[in-house]
Design the sequence.
């Protein structure tokens, strides 16, 4: 089953994607991780992406899609995958659809993590992550056992630069202008499923279990 996660920054896409990865053994494919991996390994696509990033320019959709297609062609994606952070606009959605159709594949489910802007600002501004392993925490709702220390690896917990209120509101503005049209796109495809991004993880997963059949 091929799944796309939709929703504003901080709506819970990554958290739910990781839970689904653990439960159904579907690889959680994050475009941010893909860029970092390709650049680190100095692949041809990574080199191409870096030339744009070094100039502060947006990486062309074709490069991103090719990077994504290379990733989902791996053996661990043969039963499906979960996309997080892609597509971000209609052009990317169309490009992904065309590329998958050539392989006789398609996106089977688009999960929208719905949330109000003010709730997202509160959630993200309180977020902390382990600088070593990336495990997420929150100063109110997901505290570590020892303040400032990761439960899993003992790493230091930090606040990301993009988790300040000003940056969060800017990111939400971009989301509403560019990415929100994907909700209509996948709704017309008949595969959109809307979840309350501030519902409990247990409730969200319970509802998704009725839809995801593997």
Sequence:
């Amino acid at each position: 089953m091929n799944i796309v996660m939709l929703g504003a920054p901080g709506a819970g896409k990554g958290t739910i994607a990781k839970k689904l990865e653990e439960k159904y053994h579907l690889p959680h494919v994050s475009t941010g991780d893909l860029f970092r991996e390709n650049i680190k390994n100095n692949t041809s696509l990574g080199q191409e992406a870096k030339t744009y990033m070094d100039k502060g320019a947006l990486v062309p959709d074709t490069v991103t899609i090719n990077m994504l297609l290379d990733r989902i062609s791996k053996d661990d994606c043969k039963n499906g995958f979960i996309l997080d952070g892609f597509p971000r606009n209609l052009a990317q959605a169309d490009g992904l659809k065309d590329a998958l159709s050539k392989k006789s594949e398609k996106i089977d489910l688009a999960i929208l993590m719905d949330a109000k802007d003010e709730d997202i600002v509160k959630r993200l501004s309180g977020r902390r992550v382990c600088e070593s392993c990336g495990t997420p925490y929150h100063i109110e709702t997901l505290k570590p056992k020892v303040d400032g220390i990761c439960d899993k690896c003992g790493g230091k917990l930090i606040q990301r630069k993009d988790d300040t209120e000003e940056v969060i509101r800017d990111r939400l503005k971009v989301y509403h202008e560019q990415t929100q049209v994907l909700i209509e796109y996948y709704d017309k495809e008949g595969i959109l499923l809307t979840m309350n991004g501030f519902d409990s993880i247990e409730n969200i997963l319970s509802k998704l279990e009725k839809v995801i059949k593997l």
Observations:
- The mean pLDDT is 92.
